[in-house]
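Re: the 86-residue chain
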Amino acid sequence: MARGWESKGIEDQIAAAEAKKELRDREALTAAEMERRRRREGLLVERKRIEREMLLGHKRRYLVLLERALKHVESELAKLDQADSD
């Protein structure tokens, strides 16, 4: 039984160390990196909204507008991906 308690304590220590490392990694992000992440998340949400609207859209003019918006969002995402890979 004592061995079970020891291994549980070690597991807790490992989990705590991993949590601290995760926190340090998050804090290490620069302001620019955080802004890129927020921008990317916003663009992904916008792309999803546009795609949903395209499925519901009935008028051709509106669909054309949505297609242009989708191309713009995807080009912005590509720019962010390009900047991340550099």
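The chain has a mean pLDDT of 84.
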